[in-house]
Design brief:
Blueprint lengths: L8 E4 L9 H17 L2 E4 L13 H12 L22 H13 L3 E4 L3 H15 L13 H9 L5 E4 L6 E5 L3 E5 L8 E3 L7 H11 L4 E5 L3 H14 L5 E5 L2 E2 L9 H8 L9 H6 L4 H9 L14 H7 L10 E2 L2 H14 L2 H14 L9 H10 L6 H8 L13 H27 L6 H15 L3 H13 L7 H8 L1 H15 L1
Parallel strand pairs: 1-2, 8-9, 10-11
Antiparallel strand pairs: 3-4, 4-7, 5-6
Helix pairs in contact: 6-7, 10-12, 13-14, 16-18, 16-20, 17-18, 17-19, 18-20
The structure holds glutamic acid (GLU).
Glutamic acid binds next to loops.
Length: about 500
């Protein structure tokens, strides 16, 4: 247990195997809140000892998405700190030193089975009694035997010699969780390639980095008993543990990266799973943080809208729940809509620019005034993707406008080309409009409605389809003013040519 006077130090320890999963974002958020609340320290550690699963570039991607969320770290990559290096791959000498200590004290041993032998043992055990638990060799191989086998080119592993006792993890969320001695086996702490396993590196680093609280997903709960055993063997203190509820889809399945592949196979649009997916899909970090904060935590009252500052005020580890959290996408969408309406304009603009850049959209060429106007014209949008759908046509060359066949049929061609004929009449009027402003365009459309004794939509929709290719755009006056007279007329001409 850390002493009461100790500074709170928490960590987020992603493995660089791809982008940041939304569950990882929730993990760092809760840790970040614990640190901020206590005036403590947030450590970012990159757990990159699994060479086989390492994905090029993923560290940069993770850092970039964390910054986008606004979850900064006090120590770690690019920030430095007194307890580095913060990449596990740069700490091998440190792990070797502690590995040696365990080997020499007899708390760990070299295990000499080849993968084939191990496999045979597993198969045999399964046939005989269904399960497999690594049987500790008797006598244990000596350090010399292990080293010699290594020299002979054999891939030797190191196993932790588990004590013959029950181990209880005092979890601040779940309470005491005990595993009995017969549920443990001597697990591997150093792999055949000489790298430490996750368990070993994690325990050494948590201790050397003076981590006081380990808050992570419930999927790690069963690892914690191994970690406690290693802490005892190495003489390290045990941090305060808290295991957070797992995040599930609404259908009860676990939310995982594989959901994307499954959807693609089924011919469906892949769901957003990683933070980057949500960013690319036009969600706001404010909405995501607010939403994921409520995945497993609540104050118990009705308040649902929180800024990061408000979360910091309200957060406490005691109010993290035990039960699984459900990822309700409809709710996230509604959070995003609310946040888009609530954010100050300058912030929203910054977010829109990020969205445009990340998707490499032609909208990037627009200046701040123009983008601000677009935000206003689309007020009420759910995500930036909706906004892009509504105004993307502004950034396309007039000749490149593509017409949605359904829109053409419904709005222009129906009833004996009624829409086309209205479009032709409007064209003449628009041509002679001198001041091409929202107000004058609206007045023109209104006059036309009166003289043709028809509804606004019957005039506005044909123009909208003609200039945008689809049935969605900002108000018709706004749309045409944004486009300007020349481009409006070019597009109407192009559209009328469909008829010819
Ligand atoms: N690298 C581990 C992971 O990404 C960290 C788990 C932990 O927090 O201990 O799952």
């Amino acid at each position: 247990m850390p002493a009461a006077s100790e500074t709170v130090r928490v960590r987020f320890a992603p493995s660089p195997t791809g982008y940041l999963h939304i569950g990882g974002a929730r993990t760092i958020l809760f840790n970040w809140l614990v640190a901020r609340k206590a005036g403590g320290c947030m450590v970012l550690r990159i757990e990159d000892t699994d060479q086989a699963r390492h994905v090029e570039d993923s560290v940069q991607k993770i850092l970039d998405d964390l910054r986008w969320l606004g979850l900064t770290w006090d120590e770690g990559p690019e920030a430095g700190g007194d307890y580095g290096p913060y990449f596990q791959s740069q700490r091998l000498d440190i792990y070797n030193q502690y590995m040696q200590q365990l080997l020499e004290s007899g708390r760990a041993y070299y295990a000499l089975e080849t993968p084939q032998e191990l496999n045979d043992m597993r198969e045999k055990a399964k046939k005989e009694h269904g399960g497999f638990r690594y049987p500790r060799p008797n006598p244990l191989p000596t350090i010399e035997q292990g080293q010699q086998a290594k020299q002979e080119g054999q891939r030797v592993v190191v196993r932790c010699k588990m004590p013959d006792e029950d181990i209880t993890v005092h979890d601040s969320i779940l309470g005491d969780v005990t595993l009995t001695a017969d549920q443990f086996e001597d697990f591997i702490i150093q792999k055949g390639d000489g790298y430490p396993t996750y368990h070993f590196a994690c325990v050494v680093d948590d201790a050397l980095m003076k981590i006081t609280h380990v808050l992570r997903g419930q999927e790690h709960l069963m690892n914690s008993h191994k970690h406690v055993a290693l802490q005892r063997a190495l003489g390290f203190p045990t941090p305060i543990y808290g295991h957070m509820p797992v995040i599930f889809n609404m259908d009860g399945s676990k939310m995982s990266k594989r959901d994307k592949e499954k959807a693609i196979k089924a011919g469906l649009a892949p769901p957003e799973i990683e933070v980057h997916d949500f960013r690319t899909a036009g969600f706001l970090p404010e909405a995501i943080l607010n939403f994921i904060a409520l995945l497993g935590w609540s104050t118990g009252d009705d308040k649902e809208t929180y800024t990061l500052d408000e979360l910091t005020q309200a957060f406490s580890m005691e109010r993290i729940g035990k039960t699984n959290a459900k990822f309700d996408r409809a709710k996230l969408l509604s959070f995003n809509t609310d946040w888009a309406a609530r954010l100050p304009e300058a912030k929203l603009l910054e977010r829109l620019k990020d969205y445009a850049a990340i998707n490499d959209l032609p909208m990037q060429s627009a200046n701040d005034d123009m983008l601000t106007r677009l935000l206003q014209a689309c007020a009420g949008f759910r995500t930036f993707a909706d906004l892009q759908k509504k105004i993307g046509f502004l950034f396309v060359q007039d000749q490149a406008i593509e017409y949605d066949p359904k829109a053409v049929k419904k709005v222009l061609a129906k009833n004996d080309n009624a829409g086309f004929s209205i479009l032709a009449q409007t064209q003449t009027k628009l041509e002679s409009l001198e001041h091409f402003t929202k107000a004058s365009i609206e007045a023109l459309v209104k006059d036309l409605c009166d003289s043709l004794d028809t509804k606004m939509g019957n005039i506005a929709q044909p123009i909208r389809v003609a200039v945008s290719g689809s049935t969605v755009s900002p108000s018709i006056g706004e749309t045409l003013e944004l486009l300007g007279k020349e481009r409006t007329l070019n597009r109407i001409n192009k559209c009328l040519a469909i008829l010819a």
